[in-house]
């Protein structure tokens, strides 16, 4: 992982699942970041216990109250992060928080469609907007030309379920609202890559594999990939990416996923 060296990063939905795994892996790096911001919508709650334990041992871990469906919460979180990092900005924003409604197409409701889109798609849009000044600062302050995840980047946690070419496991799980929200997140990633390139910010959509988390297991099947393997794979992939890869859709093993 020698290639991935960030001074600061923020992970949304960091209290469990893949988000927590990402935080744990960054803290264990030989050269850990100066700041690891863990977004969590209920920092004092029961579901944040592991994060609280980690924070008591790692002074560079800051738990940031963050509800990605709330524009106000996002703005407050951006202010909190700015107060910590000062002029050096934020290198890496990982939009990981997400929800899935395991429902048949015939049972999808306007409420489920809207809630899923608000969390999985609008959240990452607003996060990108709110943290843009900090990402720009990080890009300006990093030596070297070309885009990379070490310099300044937005990583959107997508899903192969949002692939239109290969709508993975449809027979097993329909979850149309989820698929639509991730297909839209992929388009958002492309838009962000086009708009933010001139600011030196790399953008990518990542499929983490089918992973052993609450969400991964929610349809009653056991996923094949552990959180550890998924996160190890994704960090290796992120460390290897360069300017030519901005705006792409990749999986945890570095393979291109069809849109
Ligand atoms: P989990 O359900 O295990 O965890 C989801 C995380 O997101 C929790 O920390 C949860 O917080 C947080 N979250 C949900 N809604 C919000 C919100 N509105 N504001 C802030 N935080 C929120 O999911 P995974 O770890 O499995 O998934 C992480 C990402 O990976 C998701 O984007 C998912 O779509 C994607 N993914 C996962 C796959 C898998 O197999 N697991 C496959 C493909 C993609 P809280 O504890 O408060 O609910």
From TrEMBL:
<protein>
    <submittedName>
        <fullName>C-factor-like</fullName>
    </submittedName>
</protein>
<dbReference type="InterPro" id="IPR051468">
    <property type="entry name" value="Fungal_SecMetab_SDRs"/>
</dbReference>
<dbReference type="InterPro" id="IPR036291">
    <property type="entry name" value="NAD(P)-bd_dom_sf"/>
</dbReference>
<comment type="similarity">
    <text>Belongs to the short-chain dehydrogenases/reductases (SDR) family.</text>
</comment>
<dbReference type="InterPro" id="IPR002347">
    <property type="entry name" value="SDR_fam"/>
</dbReference>
<dbReference type="GO" id="GO:0016491">
    <property type="term" value="F:oxidoreductase activity"/>
</dbReference>
<dbReference type="Pfam" id="PF00106">
    <property type="entry name" value="adh_short"/>
</dbReference>
<dbReference type="GO" id="GO:0005737">
    <property type="term" value="C:cytoplasm"/>
</dbReference>
